[in-house]
Design a protein that fits this description.
Elements: H1 6-21, H2 27-35, H3 47-50, E1 56-59, E2 62-64, H4 67-77, E3 84-88, H5 94-101, E4 105-110, H6 113-125, E5 131-134, E6 147-152, H7 161-165, E7 167-178, E8 183-190, E9 196-204
Parallel strand pairs: 3-4, 3-6, 4-5, 6-7
Antiparallel strand pairs: 1-2, 7-8, 8-9
Helix pairs in contact: 1-2, 2-5
The structure holds S-adenosylmethionine.
Residues 62-65, 88-89, 91-92, 94-95, 109-112, 115, 136-138, 153-154, 206-207, 209-211, 214 line the site of S-adenosylmethionine.
Length: 219
């Protein structure tokens, strides 16, 4: 395990300042990003990249999301302590740690076996406890449904109905939807009667969501 020194915390403070300048307001999100040592997800030689506001390769053709993207998605979810959150696309596990720092109970699914195994072993070493699952998150996780919040961290071709169905009343789902070049960040709200409303929030670029309701079945 790498060390988390005064210097690293200073680098995180600068990153948090950048996120505030870009419009992130949720104190709990900013505090979580200030707390989670993002450099633990990088090789030592790439320390300088860990606290830049950009995505970075994590192997297997995948990326650790840009901190701004993590902050936007976490802010849109309006996490409350104790929320049961489904994350689709564990990847490095960084977004999962941010949600755990915000006191959510996290259920996270990864499609890639190597990334699943790495995150499942590494996060507990950092003191973070989540429920990990290897499988196709485009179909959600029916065994543990319904969820207060659902976050999809890969770009979907369309809105999977399975995820909407697994949302509790008053639940929120954040999912990037679009083509393989860019995706619109969609926020789905399910009200207490089960009525769905949809908002769009800016464009992002994610790696593709695979699986039954992702790109695999469309190719
Ligand atoms: N949340 C991650 C983090 O903090 O590092 C970033 C995730 S990366 C941008 C997208 C991840 O989604 C990849 O690890 C990819 O393997 C995974 N993925 C793609 N399709 C998936 C699916 N159907 N179910 C679960 N994971 C999927």
């Amino acid at each position: 395990m790498q060390e988390d020194s005064y210097r690293h915390r200073g680098m995180r403070r600068n990153l948090v300042k950048i996120l505030i300048e870009k419009g992130i307001k949720d104190r709990a999100v900013l505090e979580a990003i200030q707390t989670v040592p993002r450099h633990f997800f990088f090789e030592k030689a790439f320390l300088e990249h860990a606290y830049q506001d950009k995505a970075f390769p994590i192997g297997e053709g995948q990326t650790i999301s840009q901190p701004y993207t993590v902050a936007v998605q976490s802010e849109l979810l309006q996490i409350k302590p104790g929320d049961k959150v489904l994350e689709i696309g564990t990847g490095s596990g960084y977004q999962c740690c941010v949600l755990l720092e915000m006191q959510a109970k996290v259920y996270t699914i990864e499609y890639n076996k190597k990334l699943y195994q790495q995150a499942k072993e590494f996060l507990p070493k950092m003191g973070y406890r989540a429920h990990f699952h290897l499988g196709d998150g485009s179909q959600g996780w029916p065994t543990f449904a319904p969820f207060d919040k659902i976050i999809v961290t890969a770009g979907a071709p369309s809105l999977p109905q399975a995820l909407i169905d697994q949302l509790k009343p008053n639940g929120r789902l954040v999912i990037p939807v679009g083509n393989e070049e860019h995706q619109e960040m969609i926020l789905i709200n399910k009200d207490m009667h089960g009525k769905i409303t949809t908002e769009s929030h800016d464009y992002f670029r994610f790696v593709p969501l695979l699986g039954k309701f992702g790109w695999t079945s469309k190719q």
